[in-house]
Each structure stands twice: as C-alpha cells, then as structure tokens.
Amino acid sequence: MSYEIKQDGKFKFIEEGNGEPLMLLHGLFGALSNFKDLIEHFRKSNKVIVPLLPLLELDLLHTSVGGLQKFVHRFIEHRKYDQIHLLGNSLGGHVALVHVLKHPEKIKSLILTGSSGLFENGMGDTYPKRGDKEYIRTKTALTFYDPAMATDELVNEVFEITNNRIKVIKIIALAKSAIRNNLGEELNQIKQPTCLIWGNNDTITPPFVGKEFNRLIPNSEIHFVDQCGHAPMMEVPHEFNRILDEFLVKLSSAAATV
Asked: 232 preceded by cis ω (within 30°)?
C-alpha cells in the first residue's frame, strides 16, 4: 500500500490514522518502504507520522546527527505534535536519542531498534565503492539475517546514492558524525519508558549494543528477535509489531491506572 506524502511548508511526511502520535525515524539508507508493515498495523490505533529526513539535502556543515535532530525538532514544533511515541531505526534511533535528551517535554516514550549512538560497524573501510553493484549488493545484504531481503529495488536505491559523489561525501559525513557522537555518558538522563527491539543476528549494531542501551537507559526493556538483522521492522514485521503493541498497551494501562 502506498501512502500520500504530505507537504507543510518545507516538511514532507506521511501521516496516517488517529490517536497518540507514533513518529518513525528512518536510518541512513532508510526509506518510507522500511516502515510499510508498521504503518499499516499502527494506523488503526495511532497517528503514524514518518517525516522524510533530509539526509542528503542539508548543507555539509549541518549534515550530522545534530543537524537532523534540529530538523526533527522544527518539524515537531511546526506540526504541534505532543505526547509522541518516538521510534528510530539505526541512524534514526541516534537522532531520536539526541532529541529526547535535548527536548524531552513532548516525548512520551522511546522505541529503538538497531540504533547507533554507542557502537556501530560501518559498511567497511573501502565503502562507499562507486560503480560496483555486486559490492553494494553484498554490503546491503549484511543489513539482514536473510540476504534475500536485499531486493533488486533496495540495491538499486543504495547503488544510485553511492554513485553520486556529493551524496557519498554526505553519507560519509553522517557516518562519521554518528561515530563521534557517542551518548554513553548521557543515556542515564532519559526518563521516558524505552522499548529496545534488537535482532539477535544484527552485525551492524550487534546484540551487545542493545544490552548496553538497556543497562544505561534507566526505564528500559529489551526484546531480542531470532533470525533477524539490523532492521527488525522490515525482516520480522509481525513479531516487531507484537512487541511494540504490548509496550504501548502497557503504557496506556499504566496511565489509566494513575
């Protein structure tokens, strides 16, 4: 199912359903398609919002985790969202973490899956390798437990990005920014209930990273999923949605009791 991309000022986004806002932040090579199963499931109970992050549109000075966080903050303020359940995958999780540390007041809960912010393996020392589609296919497949998830469509998207010199420079800038921006000493300041959903076969942010997030974020719970890599919401959507459903229902029940 395809969703209408709305525009409000300079912001482009998907907004489906009604209820408490569930905002989804994609990763470095992420796209709206990463969240299609999640959108379809949660639009029945929540207002699901997916901003198109300007990963490759910001000027080089602001092509960083901090630059993306400022964009998300402006988007939230412009749209007047409140009581947000903020979900991020990979680099999107890192942006979500920085946002909740800087602007916690409108965030009701945090959901991280394969998030950077503590440790991540990059695409390798020789990446990005331009003009070699099989190399890109191999590297894209490392995102998943099942390499068949690296479809021709996905590989072509990544290949197109890595074949553009300016885009490659910006990807490298974002990746370096993520590595520099280690949040280990700040995570204990997060007060929001936090749900960590991690693939047991994630090679980019391995399971020990999820365990460390769980140790450092005070009010957090962690769920590991077998036969799953770096993008659980794509690879095991039903299990991902079940875990997230239970987390949100539990929050709602606790609020009702109070």
From this structure: no
Averaged pLDDT for residues 204-217: 97
- What are the extents of the domains in the chain? 6-120+183-257
Give residue 124's pLDDT band: very low, low, confident or very high (50, 70, 90): very low
Domain range 6-120+183-257, CATH class: alpha beta
Token pair for residue 96?
Answer: 């979500």
d(CA 27, CA 143): 12
List the alpha helices (DSSP H) in the chain. Answer: 36-42, 65-79, 91-102, 133-141, 152-162, 165-180, 207-216, 232-235, 237-257
Query: How far, in Å, CA of 223 to CA of 199, rounded?
Result: 9
Query: Other C-beta atoms within 10 Å of 86: how many?
Result: 29
Residue-wise over 94-111: b if at least 16 C-beta within 10 A, else e? bbbbbbbeeeeebbbbbb
| Coil vs helix vs strand at 148 | helix
**Model-level pTM?**
0.93
**pLDDT tens readout for residues 78-99:** 999 999 999 999 999 999 999 9
* Integer Cα distance of 133 and 40 in angstroms: 32
Q: Average pLDDT, stretch 98-115?
A: 98
Residue reference for tokens 């993520």: 178
Measured distance CA(49)–CA(96) in Å, rounded: 14
